[in-house]
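Q: Hi! First time doing this. I have a protein sequence and I read that you can turn it into a structure. Is that right? Here it is:
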Amino acid sequence: MNEPLLRPATSADAVSIARIWYSGWRDGHLGHVPDALLAVRTEESFGVRAAEHVVDPATRTVVAEVEGAVAGFVMVVGDEVEQVYVSSEHRGSGIARSLLAEAERLVAANGHRSAWLAVVAGNVRARRFYERQGWTDEGRFDHTAPHEDGPIPTPAHRYTKPLG
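A: Yes, that's right. Below is the predicted 3D structure, encoded as structure tokens:
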């Protein structure tokens, strides 16, 4: 496989981001989140959210492109690595590591000395990945998953990593 090209996401990437996000979100969250969150995280909702995130100046979205196609993405807001997803056909290829390293660079460029992210408590595969990348599990907390009718408390683990 060719080395992925990391670049800022554009509006043209929103459909690919939504597809990867919806599929990956279901893989890591089904059976681990409240029914209220599952009910509002429809396939359509990921399309709307992806389109909003790629144009939101507060969110830095970077895609990993392989052979002209989006293979994964990361979203950074301030000191939070908000989303990291890789398409199922590219998992295990090192793209997630590249995206996470880029996210860490972006958080540092935002002027922060450490980064944080939330991982759904039951998503053991993701938790192991972050730990292998040097992130520290600071314990469980109720992550407030955003929704237009108000945040939905979701059991998660808070991971942090000092930067630079």
